[in-house]
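Recap slide: UvrD-like helicase ATP-binding domain-containing protein, sequence and predicted structure.
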Amino acid sequence: MPTNELVLKREQAHFDDAWLAREATRATLSDAGSASGGPRKVAAAVKNAADERLQRLGGSDDAVAFGRVDVGDDVLYIGNHAITNDDFDLLVVNWQAPAARPYFEATFANPLGATLRRTFQCERNTIQGFDDVVFEDLARRVAQLDASAEEVWGINDALLSDLEAGRSGEMREIVQTIHHAQYALIRSEMDQLLVIQGGPGTGKTAVALHRVSWLLYNHAPDLLPQDVMVVGPSDTFTRYIRSVLPGLGDDNVVYRDLRSLGPQKSTGRNEGTSIRRLKGELRMASLLHTALWQRVRVPDRMKTLQVGSGFSAVSFSREEIEAELPNHVGKGSYTVGRASFRNFLQREVEARNPRGPGATAPVLDAAVERVWPSLSAVAFLRDLFGSRDRLLAAAGDRFTGTEIGRLFRQASDKVADEQWSDVDVALLDEAEELLNGRPSARYRHIVVDEAQDLSPMQLRSIRRRSESGSMTVVGDLAQSTGPWARESWDDITTILASDLPAQLEQLELGYRVPRQVYEFAAQLLPYIAPGLKPPTVVRDGPADPELVEVDEFDVAGPALAAARSHAGSGRFVGLICPDRHRRRLEEELVAHDVKWANVGSGNLDSSINVARPSESKGLEFDAVVVVDPEAIVGESDWGLRHLYVALTRTTKYLTVLHTGVALPLPTEQASDALIELAEVRGLEQAALFDAPPPARVTERTPRDPSAESSRPNARAASRTGSTSTSSLNVVIAKRAAEALAADLREAVAPHLWEAVISELREELGLGDS
């Protein structure tokens, strides 16, 4: 029998023994409740404890282990869950245990005493094959420059096989493919603010989630699953990732998305970029604080405050109340202060009329309400945004008249009918803390994913839920878009700061996005994140990006055809489309009776998933179809970053449908101005430069592996054609006009618009033409 077959037979025998031991444990635990006897409460407690252990066993069809490491004379099998037999012999070590460290951290340069690392490929509990790293041999070959890049980086067949497997609507755990750089971050100290910068395909989300599992194991029983919160940007994203931790045996971790992180969920109110940025600024916290305490006042026409009626009534002069209020205002939350003031009135009523019946609760509440109204967060914010007078009174010199105009909106007739935007949620949460104090649900560790886009007010919302400041924050600055697109992590670490140390780390190895795809997309990096080091990508995909030119008046049809072609091959497809073509694409999907999922509505299907670029962040697909890159770039101030996001969502195949420009890069002359635009964040500044036409990319034949330079290159493959030389200027002018129009609508009554526009033309010296 060949050597490999003998090894495989011995390894399978160990897997079989471990499986029998695990299933025997499962049977024992399954009967624990009924076998315990005794009082019902005791039996229930035993059953609950047994059920928790059952969750940590994994499924009966799961492989017992995914790897093995030999350290000296010890042979350790590594799996998701520890397994022992009846004699308490350890058959499998769980991956979070310290003993498993050499499996993940050993390298040719520092093997940590390990001589062999073996990674198994399994179908259920049957070993299909294995991949060995003999560290002494690898070190020798590295010294002789005879080792591949994959071997040096620790990329093995198990990882490549995992990436070849089809994606689905749920993220999978990747514990068997964790490499040493990721493992070092996973097991780093809990008591810190750990910020992880990682480009597309570096596995940053998986690292953060597996770090949770590692912390739960190594800090038990002090750290429980319900002590950990994972925050994502949207419900779609949290649904996508929430299957990872249960797969590792860690249920009951709390998942929240930013649209619901407060007393009221977002109802999808649509607001422009300028108002979304304004509402995210830290000065909004001061505005809310001032506005709330301004609600505590003696009404102008009130001469006395009367508690009760008839002979038992007690009256307080205006001067008495005004002198007393400072004793309660600002002494804790709004609600605590209100209760304190109510107690004062109750004591005084009893003291001034000791023989009277005293004030009933409804009578006291009515008196308090006249001076100190009872408020909820939604009622307070509705009242504030619906009143220019209240906004102006609270703003002081911190806000301009134009900004007050932006914040003002017509209040709904009923509080329950008020519509709230995503950015309103953080303001509601701020108001809730002012009203009722810090949230009762606070967490010992918080994971924040896609953190690069968060506003300061959203960061405050997260920070107030942390007990100590212990957090893992992950994201990619090159994918930072929206009103709070940023170039560094500095302001995020400042707002989330605590007494704990802060550490910024970078994942340098990219292996989930294919090399050909990333080389194509990375041509955007000098323009979207010039100071960011790109990851080293170490995996080739099955094909080069497919660049297909289509008629600009018929984009939806080819887009659907491309998506159906990929789906017909059993691939999980992301169809990433700008708003310009969205309605027509949806009509095509319906007309052809195609089953599809709307990512923006929180859905992910096993086939075709339609998303805007911003909605696709953090998701992975087997195949991605990107529709009209020029339109993507043109629809947002951060369009180049949105395009970068869209192009890097695939683990295998990329199809780009373009109308003449597959990768619309600015020229060198325009790039400096684009960077300036990013820094000032002002649309008005964008009109200061004149942009030449973007470069073009032509279709390429399949890549020749022997070619020295075979990637699609936007600058080298340029040609003239249908795109106007002022296309970027048109986009900038449109954005500036939208911003000015928003200011005009919010600050000036409609009947004055024409007069204002006329005066503006005069100010600019444009005359009447």
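The mean pLDDT is 85.
The chain is about 40% helix and 15% strand.
(End of recap.)
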